[in-house]
Write a structure and sequence with these properties.
This protein is mainly beta and 621 residues long. The chain has six helices and 23 strands. The strands form three sheets. It has an 18-stranded antiparallel beta barrel. Strands 10-11 form a two-stranded antiparallel ribbon. A two-stranded antiparallel sheet has the order 17-18.
């Protein structure tokens, strides 16, 4: 076997042998090598765990750092250290991460930053061992609201029958100026289990108490109290229970947390988008939930109506509940009939059995039965079938409601005979947004009774209306209660915070009345968001009766025009911190009476119009 060395020899570079010892050739050291310092033996690692700075020994893995100890007893155990890179440290309690890093220090008086009293972090059970809770996902949320109202206004005020505040005042109507001041404090608290950021609570306990102090002054006697000896001013207070319920999560039905829950107790409920039919806080049992990724929501409930305090409108839980039941079932569907529009169908049944009782309010005025017609009590069963929509169609914002009221009245106060109930209601509001301006168009129609002496009642009335519509309580007609003097005692043509001409003794304590003249409203308005903190609104509504035959019968007049008049209003809302914690509102409204209103009402000064001013301050925690 031979080896060819020629290729290898070609790669060898000849090395000069000058000045080298004979018999051996070696490379001369370079100039850099001659001047370089000798290495320090201490820089050479002797322990395999040591490494040179900036270098890593191949194949060597240093030991892990010591395990992080748990310093928050009861919290969820952190993952083991080997689950994290060595340059990261696990945080055992993510709720208190911000405070642990020193970014914020909790202050229970601060409603804007992280606060345990607002439910931002779970309860530390070690600090409240007396609470009967288990687990580390219980939260507490407290709320406080101060609602201050000062409201000077003018409206038709009847002169007292027995006596007047001013001797010699013999007219049917007296002076029209009055004012009211009201202060309400609402304190609420919730205790609930479960993280509600992405799923409903497992269980919730909720209570809300409201304390109202009000002062009213009017120019005539027997307006604030039935006794003519009582003064024409009144200071009153009342503590009401507005919420007291338990909400229990029954089950989840999908991985997107579609659920079924049940709620028992005094709870808020609004039957439709704008509160036309039933919007109240009543004692009830409600099954509710959703499906299809929250695209479908439903409610099944029964409510046992509570008595209300006369002057504050708050729930009076120390009085026996009314013999008045409300059964309701509704279903919401998003993106139906068109994308962007939420549709709702509703069936509500009102069963009232208060015909054999007599109810006198806190001021001494009879409210059940209403002092109209034959003055007899009545029972009724009414089924409301309705469709509601809210959302947008293209660039147009849409709200619409329509109802049919079908039922039976045991006694019509015109005929003293049973009567069937056939009444209808429709309302819509269209609006268009352009930059910082929203323009609105509103329309409403509620049928009136066309023949008081037949066996059919066709005037539409709600169970408990509180509409957010056509300017809401900025509007004069919606805000004020107009007494129906001359046709019924202690009866209002329209109720406070209501739009319907229902001829009820009281929206809070009276019964529904389907012998009424009905309501027609056509309005236009606009909202101007001048800044993120300041909004200015204006509304102009024209009002009329749908049918005046019931008014003519009760007043013994041959003809009453339908025109109520023009309701003009403007409001400014200022939010200094661009949120709902501080809200200041100032509004003014004018009712320019039409022929029908002037035919029914007057005042001692013969004023041509009626005014209302509302100053309101809401502070929330």
């Amino acid at each position: 076997m031979s080896v060819d060395l020629a290729p290898a020899l070609l790669l060898v570079t000849p090395v000069p042998v000058t000045d080298m010892p004979s018999g051996w050739a070696q490379e001369a050291p370079s100039q850099d090598a001659q001047t370089a310092p000798k290495p320090d033996p201490r820089d050479t690692p002797t322990d395999p765990s040591e490494t040179l700075e900036g270098r890593r020994k191949p194949g060597y893995v240093p030991p892990l750092p010591k395990a992080v100890t748990q310093d928050n007893p009861g919290a969820v155990r952190a993952p083991p250290p080997e689950a994290f890179p060595t340059d990261q440290v696990p945080v055992p309690d993510r709720w208190r991460l911000i405070e642990s890093l020193g970014v914020v220090k909790e202050n229970w008086l601060d409603p804007y930053h992280q606060n345990t009293l607002k439910g931002d972090r779970p309860i530390d059970r070690a600090k409240v061992p007396w609470l009967p809770i288990k687990g580390d996902d219980w939260f507490f949320s407290a709320s406080a609201v101060s609602d201050t109202v000062f409201e000077p206004r003018t409206f038709p005020i009847p002169v007292g029958v027995q006596t007047t505040r001013r001797p010699g005042s013999l007219d049917v109507f007296g002076k029209d100026a009055s004012y009211i001041a009201s202060q309400t404090f609402i304190l609420g608290a919730s205790l609930f289990k479960g993280s509600t950021a992405f799923k409903p609570p497992e269980i919730e306990y909720r209570i809300a108490l409201a304390l109202n102090v009000n002062y009213a002054q009017v120019p005539e006697r027997r307006v604030l109290h039935v006794e003519p000896s009582k003064p024409s001013h009144r200071l009153d207070s009342f503590l009401g229970v507005q919420e007291l319920f338990v909400d229990y999560h029954l089950r989840n039905v999908s991985d997107r947390y579609d659920f079924d829950s049940i709620r028992v107790g005094i709870q808020p409920f609004q039957s439709d988008f704008r509160g036309f039919l039933f919007n109240d806080q009543q004692l009830g049992l409600r099954l509710f939930g959703n499906r299809d990724g929250n695209r479908v929501q439903y409610n099944l409930g029964v409510f046992w109506r509570l008595e209300k305090d006369t002057n504050s409108g708050l729930n009076s839980v120390l009085s026996s509940p009314r013999d008045d039941l409300v059964f309701v079932a509704n279903v919401y569907r998003q993106d139906f009939l068109v994308p962007g529009l939420t549709s709702q169908v509703i069936a509500l049944f009102n069963r009232n059995r208060e015909g054999n009782g007599i109810r006198v309010d806190d001021n001494g005025f009879p409210v059940r039965p209403a002092l109209l017609g034959d003055l007899r009590g009545h029972d009724y069963d009414v089924a409301y079938l309705g469709y509601n929509a809210d959302g947008h169609v293209g660039r147009i914002n849409v709200t619409a409601s329509t109802y049919a009221a079908l039922g039976h009245d045991s006694n019509s106060f015109f005929t003293s005979r049973p009567a069937s109930i056939r009444a209808f209601f429709g309302a819509t509001e269209l609006s268009y947004d352009r930059d910082w301006i929203r323009v609105r168009l509103s329309a409403l129609y509620a049928t009136g009774d066309g023949d008081p002496y037949d066996d059919k009642e066709t005037g539409f009335d709600a169970v408990f209306e509180n509409p957010v519509f056509a300017g809401a309580d900025t509007s004069y007609w919606i805000r004020q209660s107009i007494p129906f003097a001359g046709g019924g005692r202690a009866v209002a043509l329209s109720g406070r915070n209501g739009v319907l001409n229902s001829l009820r003794s009281s929206k809070e304590e009276g019964q529904s009345n389907f012998n009424n003249p009905g309501t027609f409203l056509l309005g236009v308005g606009a909202d101007f968001d001048l800044t993120p903190r300041l909004r200015v609104s204006a509304n102009a509504n024209h009002l009329a009766f749908a049918n005046t035959i019931t008014l003519e019968t009760l007043r013994n007049e041959g003809s009453i025009p339908k025109d109520i008049g023009w309701d003009l209003s403007a409001a400014a809302i200022w939010r200094p911190r661009a949120n709902q914690n501080m809200v200041f509102r100032l509004s003014a409204a004018v009712l320019q009476p039409g022929e029908g209103f002037r035919d029914l009402f007057d005042n001692a000064q013969r004023h041509d119009r009626y005014v209302s001013v509302l100053a309101n301050v809401v502070l929330s925690y």
